[in-house]
Amino acid sequence: MKELTKICVFCGSSEGNDAAITEAAIKTGKQFAQQDVTLIYGAAKIGVMGVLAKTVLDNKGHVIGVIPDFLKKKEVVHLGLTELHTTKNMHERKLTMHELSDGFIALPGGMGTLEELFEIITWLQLGLHQKPIGLLNVNGFYNDLLKLLETMVRKGFLSMENYDLLLVDTTIENLLEKMKRFKAPEIPKWLKKHRT
């Protein structure tokens, strides 16, 4: 079983219009606090991100925020976090999140959430890390995305091995269990650090 003490969560800076998503963020925050998992996230006090961070903190958990300097505005950044890291740019932000985390979870969100999810899963596919990546499919939010990935497999653009790298569940409890049992595939022999 993999030990997950710090998990990075990608999620929306908006709350959206589905109460089930807000409730899932609250459940996730409570699970993190109960299991003594530190939340790593984008440091915002707004949207699903803000709900998640507030819940972890309200339940005496730890939260580390990572935000680029240009987004560090009083109305956006959460100033009550356990730790706050400021980076020069978005790329450095993602590298810092990766370095701090034992695994990753995507909750519902928009373009930024998808961009972060697909970059980190591409890094796993390339063998740049061996950390589990979970997708919390709240109320069918990611159903169409999963269908698209299945189409990629059928059309020969995505192998089943790489499709299976993304761990999917509808509850945070089950998703965390899948992540703890995750075993990364062997790194391809052709991939060397100097080629990345």
From TrEMBL:
GO terms for biological process: cytokinin biosynthetic process. One of its GO terms (molecular function) is AMP nucleosidase activity. Keywords: Cytokinin biosynthesis, Hydrolase. It catalyses: AMP + H2O = D-ribose 5-phosphate + adenine. It comes from the Bacteria. It is an enzyme of class 3 (hydrolase). InterPro entries: LOG (IPR005269), LOG_fam (IPR031100). GO terms for cellular component: cytosol. Its EC number is 3.2.2.n1. Belongs to the LOG family. This is Cytokinin riboside 5'-monophosphate phosphoribohydrolase. It comes from Marixanthomonas spongiae. The lineage of its organism: Bacteria, Pseudomonadati, Bacteroidota, Flavobacteriia, Flavobacteriales.
